[in-house]
Amino acid sequence: MMIFFTGSKSQDGSISEMEELPVPQNIKISNITCDSFKICWDMEARSKERITHYFIDLNKKENKNSNKFKHKDVPTKLVAKAVPLPMTVRGHWFLSPRTEYTVAVQTASKQADGDYAVSEWSEIIEFCTADYSTVHLNQLLEKAEVIAGRMLPFSVFYRNQNKEYFDHAREVQENRMLPSIKDNSGSHGSPISGKLEGIFFSCNTEFNTGKPPQDSPYGRHRFEVQADALFNPDTNLYFGDFYCMYTAYHYVILVLAPKGSRGDEFCKQRLPLLDITNNRFLTCKQVEEGDGGLVFHHAQDVILEVIYTEPVDLSLGTVAEISGHQLMSLSTVNAKKDPSCKTCNISVGR
């Protein structure tokens, strides 16, 4: 059942208290999604039949100065007609994914003069909304497909970092780049932020040269590896996110996970799986003629951020200094998604 709440108050803005209305006890929150939850509670039998409405005080947890239901606050709180419990609270205009909230409840009885008799407030309960589900991610995927553009060939994945990063990989990590936890860039409800371990790679090429660009925000040293070392028929490809940062550029996050790996198992439960031979972002196809090798293409009109979920040995590729600039303004580290962009937002949270 779906409950949409609207504000309500008496004509003079007053709320009266009558002790005989039962106070909600033992509040339980369940079925939490990124933009909804179910709520139920126990009540004493006394005056139960007099209850006409529930008043629900929902606040973001970080709002430590929120006032309880004062007269002037009534229109900003959630008011629901008394319906059988549990009931669903849903609404992307006030619920964001992956956000901590507090909730408290009153029972109320609307009087003939339009005033309300109310119970005492219940205890305050805390809960956190969930990540985007695969349903929401499929909505993002469909939006990303619209602007992906035509496919261009490429042959290498590359990763830019500073010299110290590669020195550390050689000297401390047995010549390997190791996965790290993904930061909080992108959509607020992304199920991979702060959870998925991986190594970021790029594959976009310059339109005029067909080669990787010589500029990078992440460092002047670049590791390049042939595409088939990371992307081949033994790899699963997942759609992870679609976002922008108040600019004309749009980013698509993809995850490359060797089949059966820990990263693959993580993504299988949370992300849309793409056909590696037929999707709008990144493809790997067998050449029908000749030696039967693999050919690779990437989308032209989005910037791809590819997360590879396993360690990568530096011996698989080469490290060299790029000739271009380190454009820090293009960095996506912990980048916040533009919540007002109609191209890359869906109608749940941000």
UniProtKB/TrEMBL annotation:
<protein>
    <recommendedName>
        <fullName>Fibronectin type-III domain-containing protein</fullName>
    </recommendedName>
</protein>
<dbReference type="GO" id="GO:0005737">
    <property type="term" value="C:cytoplasm"/>
</dbReference>
<feature type="domain" description="Fibronectin type-III">
    <location>
        <begin position="23"/>
        <end position="132"/>
    </location>
</feature>
<dbReference type="InterPro" id="IPR036116">
    <property type="entry name" value="FN3_sf"/>
</dbReference>
<dbReference type="InterPro" id="IPR045545">
    <property type="entry name" value="PHYIP/PHIPL_C"/>
</dbReference>
<comment type="function">
    <text>May play a role in the development of the central system.</text>
</comment>
<dbReference type="InterPro" id="IPR003961">
    <property type="entry name" value="FN3_dom"/>
</dbReference>
<dbReference type="InterPro" id="IPR042868">
    <property type="entry name" value="PHYHIP/PHYHIPL"/>
</dbReference>
<dbReference type="Pfam" id="PF00041">
    <property type="entry name" value="fn3"/>
</dbReference>
<comment type="similarity">
    <text>Belongs to the PHYHIP family.</text>
</comment>
<dbReference type="InterPro" id="IPR013783">
    <property type="entry name" value="Ig-like_fold"/>
</dbReference>
<dbReference type="Pfam" id="PF19281">
    <property type="entry name" value="PHYHIP_C"/>
</dbReference>
